[in-house]
Design a protein that fits this description.
The protein contains six helices and five strands; from the N terminus they run E-H-E-H-E-H-E-H-E-H-H. The chain is α/β, with parallel strands linked by helices. It has one domain: Flavodoxin domain (Rossmann fold), CATH 3.40.50. Strand 4, helix 4 (130-142) and strand 5 form a beta-alpha-beta unit. The structure holds flavin mononucleotide. Flavin mononucleotide is lined by residues 13, 15, 18-20, 93-97, 125-127, 160.
Amino acid sequence: MTGKAIVGLIVGSFRTHGNTEGIASWVQYYVKSLYPDITLKVYTPVSPINLMSEPIDPVVPMKISSPEQYVNPIVRSWAKAVQECNAYVILTPEYNHSYSGHLKVMFDHIYNEFRGKPGTLLTFSGHGAEKSYEELTNLTLKFGVKITGGMHFSIPMEYVVSNKRIVPNFDPNTSQDSFLKKLTPSLVSELEKTLDSL
Ligand SMILES: Cc1cc2nc3c(=O)[nH]c(=O)nc-3n(C[C@H](O)[C@H](O)[C@H](O)COP(=O)(O)O)c2cc1C
């Protein structure tokens, strides 16, 4: 491709004192270190575009063919952000056997902007996150994402039931979250399936 490829890391949770921020920092670390020429943009449901308080556009998103056509300027900027990406890494914790409701809102605001682009799906929980992976697969296929990689994985239960959380700003040299080290070869292999061809 001509120009720098843009990858959108779409993150389904912004829970205070949650684990997703730490997992997202682990993903960011490997995307940035393996693909220094890629521009990685991270989107949570509230940052840098806060989608949580916005109503769904009066025009049905499915009928919209260009981001300019969205009435709501916040939705318009979200649609532009998704459209400019050449690929996605979509990350969510499992909530009640599915992806987070916040992630669903990020999708519901728009429609055609994801279509035809490759994506890696990542879901996690204390119990393998298989069900949320299935649900996320169904959702992203509806939006036309070409699923080129993905994995669902467990975090140790102590990170779910105690006060312990995955530390943000992952650094392999200092990380105390040793289970991430074991998962890293799988993460790298799944990222490669999507990002090598950009
Ligand atoms: C509202 C809620 C629902 C959850 N539902 C499930 C579930 O269905 N299955 C599961 O294995 N874990 C479930 N968990 C555990 C989460 O996957 C785990 O706590 C994870 O760290 C959540 O990510 P977060 O901390 O970034 O929000 C749930 C947690 C929350 C807060």
